[in-house]
Specification:
Length: 481
């Protein structure tokens, strides 16, 4: 039985995992870099180990040091969170070789699904709908042109090892293909250490719909419905929700069954996510599988009542799933806004600085998965996500209302964040009506409008302040008059 878990991560996700570990009566071990010495995840843990200096390559990516620390502290299992080592098959293998439990799938499954090409190859025989394109790496521009002409422009060049929205190039015409491909290959090589790229049809107006799956080691695989993550910037999610506003019961069950097949195709174990694109005609296509806990997992937890981290741990210690597909029901609606340290007014450029004021919202229907506190520095070394704001309501409209309420309550000063963008999304008719796709930002987002809204808010705030001041000064004068 697992008694002590080391969480090989930082920030909100390290804390979120440790909370469940503690709930299950197990001990927690944190790891940290020198700049994170006083971070909430370190303070929360029962024990903590410093890995090295700030750069991830010196700390959170040092699998060797992490395993060594785990051995020294008699840890039973390692939870990798997301990012960092979570999808590193070599690390998963080393953990198991060190006689520790890796809370995640087998290294083999990580290896297959970590490569978008290998993933496509693995699911091919299971009759999974896929975006038209190549199923092998392309290096020859001539071949690429022939393929692109066959599937039709625009096409997308993708890095097989890509992730986090990186490593994608849209090509609109034949003349640009050669140069874009050369760039894509060299970028993929330097960013992911793997130059393999392939070509996919560029779907014009897709929605990003993904299915959460859970698989145990006793042959049971279930899905926990969908999440919609179409509100993105730079091909990366900013706002997510469950369920999707456009997926009906029939489509849900069809996509769910397909996701289960994808999981079974790689002998999956643990929690995973199968990502799809949904086109305007409600056709769906397999994109990739993420072999880890996903950033946006809380929305699924809220509508199903299932603690996904608890399930990961139970599966890792060999328990059979305690939930069947038929028992699962969707109750209500949940939204998540990723609070990134970015400037929505300037193309979502990173914003660094000190959190001079940092106060979280609270109340029923509000959950904040947070890893920061007032006074902390937002470091350039790590992912710029500070926290996730999750809200819940019996209906989609109620969840959106809650989100607006929570955004008002959230106070962050010292850096710019995506809070204001979240408000823009929640107020936008396209989002409210459910009629949007992955181009929400391109098609609807106008920083000038955000700026206008801010200025008029500031004006209203100033007027309220003035009125308040006048009232008070009048009251103060009253006794004299
Ligand atoms: P999710 O897929 O969980 O919805 P993201 O796509 O934003 O969320 O990725 C989650 C985290 O994993 C981020 O920290 C992101 O930078 C990181 N990440 C994902 N894939 C890769 C990859 N192939 N290489 C490096 N980092 C990655
Ligand atoms: P990553 O590993 O970076 O998460 P994905 O393949 O999951 O890469 O794609 C991320 C996002 O990029 C999708 O949610 C979608 O917005 C966009 N995208 C990916 N493939 C296509 C495609 N073939 N057509 C249109 N958009 C795409
Ligand atoms: Mg993806």
């Amino acid at each position: 039985m697992i008694q002590k878990i080391l969480v090989a991560n930082r920030g909100e996700i390290a804390l979120r995992i440790m909370k469940t570990v503690r709930k299950l009566g197990m001990k927690t071990v944190a790891v940290f870099s020198e700049v994170d010495r006083g971070a909430p995840h370190v303070l929360f843990a029962d024990e903590a180990v410093c890995l090295g200096s700030a750069p991830s390559s010196e700390s959170y990516l040092r699998g060797d040091k992490i395993i060594q620390a785990a051995k020294e502290l008699n840890v039973d299992a390692i939870h990798p969170g997301y990012g960092f080592l979570s999808e590193n098959a070599e690390f998963a293998r080393q953990v198991e070789e060190a006689d520790l439990v890796f809370i995640g799938p087998t290294s083999k499954a990580i290896e297959i699904m970590g490569s978008k090409l290998a993933a496509k190859a693995a699911v091919k025989k299971y009759d999974i709908p896929m975006v038209p394109g190549t199923d092998q790496a392309v290096t020859d521009p001539k071949e690429a042109i022939a393929i692109a002409e066959e599937i039709g422009f625009p096409v997308l060049i993708k890095a097989s090892a890509g992730g986090g929205g990186k490593g994608m190039r849209i090509v609109n015409e034949k003349s640009a293909l050669r140069s874009q491909m050369e760039r894509a290959i060299s970028e993929a090589q330097s960013a992911f250490g793997d130059g393999a790229v392939f070509i996919e049809k560029y779907i014009g107006s897709p929605r990003h719909i993904e299915i959460q799956v859970l698989a145990d080691t006793h042959g049971n695989t279930i899905h926990l419905f969908e999440r919609e993550c179409s509100v993105q910037r730079r091909h990366q999610k900013v706002m997510e929700e469950a369920p999707s506003a456009v997926v009906d019961h029939e489509l849900r069950m069809k996509m769910g069954a397909t996701a289960v097949k994808v999981a079974e195709a790689c002998n999956y174990r643990g929690a995973g996510t199968v990502e799809f694109l949904l086109d305007e005609n409600k056709n769906f296509y397999f994109l990739e599988m993420n072999t880890r806990l996903q950033v946006e997992h809380p929305v699924t937890e809220w509508i199903t009542g299932v603690d996904l981290v608890e399930q990961q741990i139970r599966i890792a210690q060999g328990e059979a799933l305690g939930i069947t597909q038929d028992e699962l029901k969707i109750l209500g609606h949940a939204l998540e806004l990723r609070i990134y340290a970015e400037t929505p007014l300037e193309d979502f450029l990173p914003s660094v600085g000190t959190l001079e004021v940092y106060q979280l919202p609270s109340g029923s229907g509000i959950r904040v998965d947070n890893g920061m506190q007032q006074g902390m520095e937002v470091s350039i070394h790590y992912d710029p996500m500070l926290a996730k704001l999750i809200t819940y309501g019996p209906t989609r409209e109620a969840a959106i209302g809650k989100m607006l309420e929570a955004i008002e309550q959230y106070r962050i000063e010292g850096i710019q964040t995506t809070l204001s963008f979240g408000k823009f999304v929640c107020l936008h008719p396209a989002f409210r009506s459910g009629e949007f796709d992955t181009h929400f930002v391109r098609d609807h987002y106008d920083p000038a409008k955000l700026q206008e809204a801010r200025e008029s808010e500031a004006r209203i705030a100033a007027l309220i302040g003035l009125k308040h001041y006048l009232n008070i000064s009048q009251q103060l004068r009253l006794p004299n008059t």
